[in-house]
Amino acid sequence: MKNKIYLKVNTDLTASPQVLSWFEQINQPPIPNKQIWWQCQTLLIEGFTNIVEHAHKNLPIETPIEMEAVRLDEYIEIRIWSQGEPFDLEQQLQQTFEFEDNVQERGRGLKIMSTIADKLNCEPTGDNRYCLFISKYY
């Protein structure tokens, strides 16, 4: 089984409900383990939020964020394309405190994502964008 969906939205946190609603299409038939599905939703919205708040923070609201989700027999892949400044995910993860040591309310999203994703990376693309890639087995 393979199911693929695509969405393009503006750089705007108010699009979060639309993003989550769009993502529901990939959960047909529903993944039996509700915790895994919740984790997939968390990965998507954390990735989207990080791009809006960090990668696109100095860009106009009209700057598109493109998303693709693919459901295969054993896992879901999420790709989110962004623009903006160069971003080194590995370096950022190394600089982020562990949950217990992080007294700030901010900056936990990447750690959460790296903890619950089976694969997580961010690579430059040939068209001056970056692709945040997330994979989760179910």
What labels describe this entry?
138 residues; alpha+beta; five-stranded antiparallel sheet; 33% helix; globular
Walk across the major sheet and give the strand order. 1-2-3-5-4
The overall average pLDDT, rounded, is 89
Oligomer: single chain
Structural class call reads alpha+beta
Order of helices and strands: EHHEEHHEE
Measured as a percent range, the helix fraction is 25-40%
The biggest beta sheet reads: 5 strands, antiparallel
Terminal Cα span: 14 Å
Shape, please? globular
Q: How many β-strand stretches? A: 5
Could you provide a short overview of the structure?
The protein is an alpha+beta fold. 33% of the residues lie in helices and 28% in strands. Strands 1-2-3-5-4 form a 5-stranded antiparallel beta sheet, with helices on one face.
Report what the structure shows.
- It is a single chain.
- This protein has a five-stranded antiparallel sheet, with helices on one face.
- It is an alpha+beta fold and about 140 residues long.
- The protein has helices at about 15-25, 35-55, 90-95, 110-115, and strands spanning about 5-10, 65-70, 75-80, 120-125, 130-135.
Helices, strands, pairings?
Layout: E1 3-10, H1 16-23, H2 34-55, E2 64-71, E3 75-82, H3 89-95, H4 109-116, E4 119-124, E5 130-137
Antiparallel strand pairs: 1-2, 2-3, 3-5, 4-5
Helix pairs in contact: 1-2, 2-4
